[in-house]
Amino acid sequence: MPDQTAASDDLIEQWRPRLAAIAAAEAGEDGAHDLNHLHRVWSAARAMLHAHPEADALTVLAACYLHDLVNLPKNHPQRERASTMAAELARERLLAAAFPAARLDSVAHAIEAHSFSAGIAPRTIEARIVQDADRLDALGPIGLARLFYTAGRMGSALAHADDPLARARRPDDRAYALDHIDVKLATLPASMQTAAGRRLADERLAWLKDFQRRFAADWLGSASE
Which CATH number fits domain 141-219: 1.10.3210.50, 3.40.980.10, 2.60.40.10, 1.20.1730.10? Predict the structure, then answer.
């Protein structure tokens, strides 16, 4: 009987550099959504695949590397459509690359469903894994670096001058970078689709919340009190 795991590994090794090349050809100048981000998303997804042998690894691989083919800024009026546009472009690029046609629909769905702003529910285990893997990269130390990088590109302030933790105001992550932790990132663990994703998200959010407290103490000049 053929070794299905070995066959899957061979497909992964065959397609990973080709998919990375497709992604690199469409890459913009956003360092928070660069090829390194795609490598990290695939690394997280590959770890989750061990707990889900029923998932198709090649579908997950393709969606991980092509999910940001269309990457619109967070303040772009069509931001909510970015993942759908990325799925359409991915289908075109995969067809041209002779990617297995039977997997195109599942890859496209995983790409569409990865986006937080699109609000598309993942219907397959592959889509759930890709969504979790992408959201994990928004948490923890790397997520924090990406947060401030993106805020800088958008022209946001680091934090509110007098109320960095939004105790007496409505959080506004378009105006203040630190607010993004509570506006969006704190909601991610509850949205995780896999047990491994939820566990890692909880750990990384705890790290972010600790940073947030330390940041606010320094910001308000009370770190040594």
Answer: 1.10.3210.50
Q: Is-contact 161 167, C-beta < 8 A?
A: no
Q: What is the CA radius of gyration of the chain?
A: 19
Q: pLDDT tens digit string along 65-85?
A: 999 999 887 767 677 788 999
pLDDT at 223: 46
pTM, whole model, 2 decimals?
0.91
Number of residues in the chain: 225
β-partners of residue 157 are 176
List, in sequence order, every residue forming a beta bridge with 176; answer none if it has no partner. Answer: 157
| Contact between residue 61 and residue 16 where contact means Cβ atoms under 8 Å apart | yes
Query: Tell me, what DSSP letter sits at residue 158?
Result: S
Q: Which token pair is 29?
A: 């100048």
Which structure tokens are listed for 166?
């939004």
